[in-house]
Amino acid sequence: MSRTLDLTALRSFVAVAEQGGVTRAAGLVHLTQSAVSMQIKRLEDALDVALFERRNRTLILTTAGEQLLSYARQMLSLNDEAWSRLTNDAFEGEITLGVPHDIIYPVIPSVLKAASREFPRVRITLVSSYTKALHRSFNSGACDVILTTEDAIFDGGETLVELPLVFVGAPQGTSWTERPLRLAFETNCIFRARVMQRLDHARIPWELAVESSGTRTIEASVSADIALHAMLRGTAREDMVEVRHGGALPDLGTQKVNLYKNGANMPQVADRLCDLIRDAYRSLAAGAPVKLVAEAS
């Protein structure tokens, strides 16, 4: 006799496994915590196995849970692909997303992947620039949705998260101990002036060792341990890490990541794209891996 696994319950199971707990998972799947817990219990009862064990307030997969997780991801992926192919034919066209250079990672690749699975006939164009330039593009209608890094927020915007601004350098690098402190910044970087002001206030000598209009030049300089840069916590690439200076460098404060949506072009796609971005930043703020499962609309 064949049995059928509940895809909705599997989606909750994957969310709990990836988020390490029911609370964060419930927000991702848009259910209450009790509903998610009940779905996990039904899966365990149906399979007659324990899927999780609790360690220090964190849910850890059992061996059976690890096996089910692999199958569940494949089943959900096929389900979502089939749903998108058969139901989203009406969504055809192009939508433009603008994002500052320094917050593309780790959120945007996951968002684009999930959005492209849900709307395979929609071309999502990514524009990478600076906050001021993105606002101009948004106001002119060239961008449908933009993310910005700002101290404040303008009318129509939504603050997704406020993250600490931190020094980043090479893994196991020592350039942060040098004086004058060597800095690497793009010409129009919004963080540049703040870093310099905080260093001046702390009476730490510094010099602009690398200045460029290109992000790759800055990344290469920092990963080579030539200089330091500043980024929002959690947004650095793998070849750059937050400098653990133990108070030897000044606190840089926080910065808002704001979302603006035009909505005039393909509003349903724009709304869903914004939902994916919100979910990804919610995970980033919670310190969880940024992984999105494309949901059937």
Summary of the model, kept short:
The chain is α/β, with parallel strands linked by helices and 297 residues long.
Secondary-structure blueprint of this entry?
Blueprint: H1 7-19, H2 22-29, H3 33-47, E1 52-55, E2 58-61, H4 63-87, E3 93-100, H5 107-118, E4 122-129, H6 131-140, E5 145-150, E6 157-169, E7 181-186, H7 192-201, E8 206-212, H8 215-223, E9 229-232, E10 241-242, E11 254-261, H9 267-285
Parallel strand pairs: 3-4, 3-5, 7-8
Antiparallel strand pairs: 1-2, 5-11, 6-9, 6-10, 6-11
Helix pairs in contact: 1-2, 1-3, 1-4, 2-3, 5-9
Question: What this model shows, in words?
Answer:
This protein has nine helices and eleven strands. It has helices at about 5-20, 20-30, 35-45, 65-85, 105-120, 130-140, 190-200, 215-225, 265-285; strands spanning about 50-55, 60, 95-100, 120-130, 145-150, 155-170, 180-185, 205-210, 230, 240, 255-260. The strands form three sheets. Strands 3, 4, 5, 6, 9, 10 and 11 form a seven-stranded mixed beta sheet that branches. Strands 1-2 form a two-stranded antiparallel sheet. Helix 5 (about 105-120) runs antiparallel to helix 9. The two termini are about 30 Å apart.
